[in-house]
């Protein structure tokens, strides 16, 4: 996964919507959230959930996430 293009995209969105602290914090938070989602399935806990927990249990959580 390439982090720099993702950071540039979220920073461009923050600048496009206005240079305000709230937007900057929101878009940086969204970038970290996206990164955690993409990396989370590669961790030991994420792999355990995908292999041992039924899809119907964790799918609504992923959909909300």
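-> sequence recovered:
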């Amino acid at each position: 996964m390439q982090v720099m293009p993702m950071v540039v995209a979220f920073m461009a969105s923050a600048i496009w919507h206005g240079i305000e602290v709230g937007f900057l914090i929101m878009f940086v938070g969204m970038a970290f959230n996206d990164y955690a989602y993409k990396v989370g399935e590669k961790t030991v806990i994420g792999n355990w959930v995908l292999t041992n927990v039924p899809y119907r249990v964790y799918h609504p959580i992923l959909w909300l996430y």
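The chain has one domain: 3-64.
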